[in-house]
Write a structure and sequence with these properties.
Order of helices and strands: HHHHHHEEEEEH
Transmembrane segments: 29-50, 56-79, 86-103
Strand order of the largest sheet: 3-2-1-4-5
Protein name: DUF3592 domain-containing protein
Shape: elongated
Number of helices: 7
Strand content: 15-25%
Radius of gyration: 26 Å
Keywords: Membrane, Transmembrane, Transmembrane helix
Structural class: alpha+beta
Number of strands: 5
Number of domains: 2
Largest sheet: 5 strands, antiparallel
């Protein structure tokens, strides 16, 4: 990888902000692990805030979003490298930013959600610019409990629907057909694989054994007879 030049980086305030986030002065491997963990935590936080429905937590997503957007520059500062790998990091950063809004919440429901039969007991209208955005309060059939409001679909009171529900109630339920492996999930998977490739190359660059310099080769002297 070609050396990364800080003179070509964005304004110094931004660079200083990123360097603060990447544990300056610590071993390179620790800086890589810490910054990648910070990016993963930011990705999950943004996804959970949007899955939860926003609210007051929307005020806190500014910094996580900034971390995701600045992933390429931050990783380049950590590795002190640029070159072709920087293009990969830009693609990874954009993919993580785009998928952060939907994939983490869906992934949580896929891993920990429970499939439940429910019936619509109330339609709730949230007015915005003269139009209604409908959400639905559900009741589980039998002894099942469904916490949270279903925000997608066109339903009426009394309709039965199968949902994937979060047992803790933190993330609202979603229709079972909406929680499936889709294009954005694939984009997120490729992005994290790209991040792993960048990390592997970074560790390889750090721990690559240095080649011992070869002694200079000198041409043999020609002795002249007197």
């Amino acid at each position: 990888m070609a050396p990364f030049s800080r003179e070509r980086a964005p304004p110094s305030v931004l660079v200083m902000f990123l360097e603060r986030l990447t544990l300056p002065g610590r071993p390179p491997w620790l800086r890589m692990v810490f910054f990648t963990t910070l990016v993963a935590a930011s990705w999950c936080f943004v996804g959970f805030v949007f899955a939860w429905g926003g609210g007051i937590l929307m005020l806190l997503i500014g910094l996580p979003m900034l971390v995701l957007l600045l992933f390429p520059l931050g990783m380049a500062l950590v590795l002190d490298r640029g070159g072709p790998e920087f293009g990969v990091m830009v693609a990874v950063g954009l993919a993580l930013t785009v998928t952060a809004f939907t994939v983490p919440g869906d992934l949580y429901l896929k891993l920990f959600g429970e499939s439940r039969e429910a019936v619509v007991v109330e339609k709730i209208c949230s007015r915005s610019k003269g139009s209604c955005s409908w959400s639905y309060e559900l009741a589980g059939t039998g002894d099942e409990i469904v916490r949270g409001l279903l925000r997608h679909g066109e339903l009426d009171v009394g309709d039965e629907v199968r949902v994937i529900a979060d047992p803790s109630g933190f993330i609202p339920p979603r229709r079972a057909g909406d929680v499936s492996f889709d294009f954005l999930d694939m984009v997120a998977l490729v992005a994290w694989l790209g991040c792993a490739v960048v990390l592997c190359q970074g560790f390889q660059a750090i721990y690559r054994p240095e080649e011992e310099p070869h002694p200079p080769v000198t041409a043999p002297r020609e002795e002249t007879e007197e």
